[in-house]
Design a protein that fits this description.
This protein has 448 residues and is an alpha/beta fold. The chain contains 16 helices and 14 strands. Strand 5 and strand 6 form a beta hairpin. The termini are far apart.
Length: 448
Amino acid sequence: MTHTYANTFDKYVSDISELSREPELGHSMRKYFQFDDGWVNLNQGSYGTHPKAVGAALAAFQSASERRPDEFVRTTHPILIDKSRAAVAAHLHAPVEEIVFVPNATTGVDTVIRSLKYSPGDKIVFFDFIYGSCENIIRYAEESTPVVGVKIAATFPISDDELVARLRETIQREQQSGARVRLALFDSIVSMPGVRLPFERLVGVCKELGVLSLIDGAHGVGHIPLDLGKLDADFFVSNCHKWLYVPRGCAVFHVPLRNQHLIRSTIPTSHGYFPAGTPDPPSGKSNFVTMFEFVGTVDASPALCVPAALHFRAHVCGGEARIMTYCSALAKAGAELIAKHLGTEVLQRENDECCLHNVRLPITAVEGEARDGEAEVGREHWGVIRPWLMDSFQAEFNTAVPVVFYGGCWWVRVSGQVYLEISDFEFAARMIEEMCGRVGKKAYLELK
């Protein structure tokens, strides 16, 4: 008997079809998710969350793998992972033979940077708002290979035209000096602060100047419309567990056929590794796809849940356009409400097609000693404010709101999502105001 549990895929998609589509998005959607009573989830962006129905699919796949371990891992899993690859490939308008899964976006970025071969004079260019782990990958590559990272300074708010110009000028300057710019790494949506980049235009600059493009699209799939065929980046990776309602950790990794020969190994190198020149296996799948199919003994069940998540989005939420329109409009309105309440402002950007917005806190960073009664923080305590605020939000107010110190100011980043309404942002505004008042009283010094 083979692939006994392959029908689990169809069963849980069928179960989702029995759920009702909500006439309105907002608090009525909470019943589909797993939140504790009273928890206000204003931070979909960091770790994501998935609906109960998708969690049921996850549990079923995990159970199946325990009931008949060998059969599931060796026979059923390859069938199911191909169904997931096909589903997300159609969603992203990419050929299925160019799509595989990795655990998270950082793994995809690391896979590309470790795979490329570097010679003295090779460069990797990136903006200074890069995600921290991705900069660390470049720094490690500098230690272990001849490549050198080149950081492009850019502080928000900044126009899309200026960002594009700075990438072009940096690449051209390096090329004119005799260096070979091997790769440009940039985000689809920057993590902190949350800002959508003109990544389509940045890919165009790379094509124009003969540089490979790598998009850290951690906040991409399920967040903004994506057409990877039209985009035609050289490498693209995006977390499915942030915005697509897939369980952690799962990321889609897109490598066009023209570049698959550059990816010589998974991380870690595993059973699918093939020496250069090895013909494709008789299975009909390429060496590239086969290599990522089984990367050691790990729980790959989250990736099997992609079809269930997509079906939930289409059937219960009403489709991608409805989700994205609601979430981006709510995030913008919610951020503006908080800023008005605090008497500050929303970090301006050119493109509001984004479910993340950033609001400046009424806290002043001072070089000297902070004055009592005013929301001032002396330099010696700058590093305390972020964790103190975030821990207080969680412990006292049953919510999570990321805080970032950026451009000499503290900001909060709020997420729009289908289970939220504007009243949740009103709650957040009152909470943040109260906590900023405590900053003026130096309550953060009471930490043990």
